[in-house]
Amino acid sequence: MAKCPIELGRAAPGMHGQRRGKESDYGRQLREKQKLRRSYGLSEGQFRLFFQRAARKRGITGELLLQMLELRLDNLVYRLGFCASRRAARQFVLHGHVERNGKRASIPSMICSAGDVVGVENKPKIREMVGAVMDAAESRGISSWLTLDKKNARGEILHVPSRDEIAPVVNEQLIVELYSK
What we know:
By secondary structure, the protein is an alpha+beta fold. The protein contains eight helices and five strands, in the order ααααααβββαββα.
């Protein structure tokens, strides 16, 4: 359910909130970009770099952008349920508590690929903390393109997610139009 007052159709706060007119094409494009950027917790510069990388690849730019954002290490830690939020997952990775294919990984923006195994380092205190968070995150469910071994606190990427399997409800075509100006 949407919490944003704009999406609910309510007027913006303040004395001039009632006067807001029809949103322009640019306004819609910018709002979609900001929605996606904020949901993944990226700065404007980081987001632009991801878009440029997606634009250079062959394929549908908007879909490639979403796939790259989903395959970021901090997002995978969140999706696997090791952390309660993307911000917490980013900090968890930065502190070096995550392993990728058996090696320590401390770069949240690292893009993983199909077949990679993402796990939590083997320290009892960290495992205990992650176990508690995983139990709470169980209701959120796990994506169909990931597998999870709760006992060992490890997850594997089965395949690169398709557009249908990616959760954010955004119109990525508007983002592509915004950056192609």
